[in-house]
Amino acid sequence: MRSLITGGAGFIGSHLAEFLIERGDEVVVVDDLSTGRLANLDRITGHPEFSFTEGDIRDEDLMAKLATEVDRIFHLAAAVGVMLIVKRPVHTIETNIQGTEIVLRCAAKHGLPVLVASSSEVCGKGTGVAFEEEHDMVLGPTSRSRWSYAASKAVDEFLALAYHREQGQRTVVARFFNTIGPRQIGQYGMVVPRFVSQALKGGPITVFGDGTQSRSFAWVGDVIRAIVGLIEEPEASGRVFNVGCDEEITIGKLAEKVRDMVDPGLAIVHVPYDEAYEEGFEDLGRRVPDLTRVREAIGYEPTLGLDEILKLIIEDIRGRLDASIRIDRPSDCGQW
Predict the structure, then answer these.
(1) Could you tell me the pTM of the whole model?
(2) Mean pLDDT by 10 residues, the chain (336 residues)
(3) Buried b (16+ CB within 10 A) or exposed e, 81-117
């Protein structure tokens, strides 16, 4: 199979590219490198079955050309991270909606299956104990920029399902719930790499809000296997699937767990949402997926627990920090 991965230089996309290359597929990655990094693709750069194109998914001529070279598309490119979404809402809306529209249109011309990556953000302020794919969406007011991301990803889901219903295109939506693992960075608000980086730098670990909000965290390797399984399962077409882990933990407990694994003496401090993001920022009490549908469709089960994943992330970030120190440290002759 020849697969196109949009956003393939990102955290999830780079792991997907490696997985597909390792099993013998050809992989084409397109990424504008706004949040992705070429370093994420170091392990497969130069491989004869891999190619990289720097470009914007909103460039329809580029996407039309790439669509003629592949058999299927994993559409992962999107604005990511709460920090980025709050600071750049125009970029968020345009990238997520216009980009997905172009990807689907180009794919439809060539009859290509498409997996569209969505987000648990579309669940909004829903009160379900475990969110099912068919639960109602409850979003906040348009004056709160964080909801622009939820709304844009909901439109992405509507578009993917509309192409399936109206044109018979094979589309499937994977709704991600907090995917974590090596290579993820905390720059745009991802909580686990942010906590780990803070801890390895000597703290304090900063918890936004009171820490009672709960989330579930899924191993990137499990998520990759799920999305490959979904795009290859014909019966999954035209449907939305939660992909994640259904074991939850409060953010306060997560901070304590990271602290205890790195240095039990580190301080944990709480920062009000208004200071962390923007005035009037709304967070969600719980965000846990119901995985019944994806289990029934492809036999999906999470394989790694949170403690095991955290160990791998700590090792990864420690290595990156050590490498950064070596690069920045002056040499014996006084040069940088």
Answers:
(1) 0.91
(2) 97 98 97 93 97 97 98 92 72 89 97 96 79 89 84 95 97 96 82 96 94 94 98 98 96 98 97 73 80 98 96 95 59 28
(3) bbbbbbebbeebbebbbebbbbbbbbbbeeebbbbbb
Which residues belong to the active site? 149
Q: Where are the domains of the chain?
A: 2-181+218-246+285-303
User: Nearest 5°: phi and psi at 25?
Assistant: -85, 165
Answer yes or no: are the C-beta atoms of 79 and 150 closer than 8 Å.
Answer: no
Q: Which residue has the tokens 């390895």?
A: 200
d(CA 76, CA 74): 6
The fold of the 2-181+218-246+285-303 domain, in CATH, is Rossmann fold (3.40.50)
Residue 283 is encoded by which pair of tokens?
């967070």
Contact 209, 285 (CB under 8 A): no
Q: Which of 302, 299, 298, 305 is nearest to 289 (CA)?
A: 302
**Which among 11, 52, 54 is positioned nearest to 33, based on CA atoms?**
54
